[in-house]
Amino acid sequence: MGSTQLSRGVQSLETMVSGLCCYLIGSCYSFLTYFPEIYYPCFMKNVIVLVFLVSIFYKANAQNSISVADTIVTGSVEKNYPGGFKAFNIYVEKNARPPVIAYENRKVGTTYVSFIIEPDGSISNIYTILAAGSGMDEEVIRVINDSKSWLPTKLDNKLVRTFCRAGVQFFADFDKKSMWVEAKQID
After folding, report:
1. How far is the CA of 13 from the CAs of 22, 56, 65, 73, 89, in angstroms?
2. CB within 8 Å of 130: residues ≥ 6 apart
C-alpha cells in the first residue's frame, strides 16, 4: 500500500469517525433531553462507543503520520565521524585556516555549530550556536560543510538523519605571530 493510499485511508477513517460521533451525540442528546430516565443507559453506552472509536482513530493516525525520513536522532562527533574525535581533530587542523581579520584584531575564541547528518552521510542545516566572530564562524561552517562521509545513525536497520554539534577553537601566540585551530570535544 502506497503512502498516498494510506493517507486517503486515514482521511476516510477520519471522516467516518467524525460523522459517527456527530450522529451519536445528536441522537443521544435529543433523547436524553426528552426522556432522561429512559435513555440515560443508552446515552452512556453511546458515549463509551464514541470514546473507543475516537481512541482507535487517533492511535491509527499517530502510527501512520511519522516516517523514518522525518526522524532525527542525536549523535556526536565521536560516534558519527569516521575515526572518531581524533580523526575529526586532524581533519580540522589540516583544513581550517585562521582568518586574517582575527589575527589582525588579535581575536581568539571557540565557535560552536550544529548540523544535520543526512542518511547519505552529507551535511545540511549548519548553524552557529555560539559565535566567536572575526571570520572564525564562517571558517568553521566552511570546514564542516566540506567534510565528507559522516556516519548517519541506524534506527531499526534504516539510516536516519542525525543532529550533531561540534566546537572548533582558534588559538594564537601573537608574540610568535602564529595562529592555529583545534576541534573541541563536546559532551
Report:
1. 14, 10, 14, 31, 53
2. 110, 111, 112
| 98: nearest Cα among 42, 138, 68 | 138
Helix axes 3-34, 36-65, angle to 10 degrees: 170
Q: What is the DSSP letter of 51?
A: H
Query: For the segment 145-160, what is each residue's pLDDT rounded down to a tens digit?
Result: 999 889 988 888 889 9
Instruction: Tell me how far apart the alpha carbons of residues 162 and 166 are, in angstroms, rounded to a whole number.
Output: 13
Domain boundary among 22, 37, 65: 65
pTM (global) more than 0.70: no
What CATH number is attached to the domain comprising 165? 3.30.2420.10
- The DSSP result for 120-157, as a single string, is TS-EEEEEEEE---TTHHHHHHHHHHH-----PEEETT
The gap from C-alpha 2 to its chain's centroid, in whole angstroms, comes to 24
Q: Which residues pair with 116 in a beta bridge?
A: 124, 163
The domain in which residue 78 lies consists of 70-184
Same domain, 126 and 85: yes
Q: Are residues 43 and 88 in the same domain?
A: no
- Which cell is 92 given? 580540522
Residues 57-102 have pLDDT tens digits of 555 555 555 565 667 788 888 889 999 999 999 999 999 999 999 9
Three cell numbers at 132?
A: 566567536
Specify the number of domains making up the chain. Answer: 2
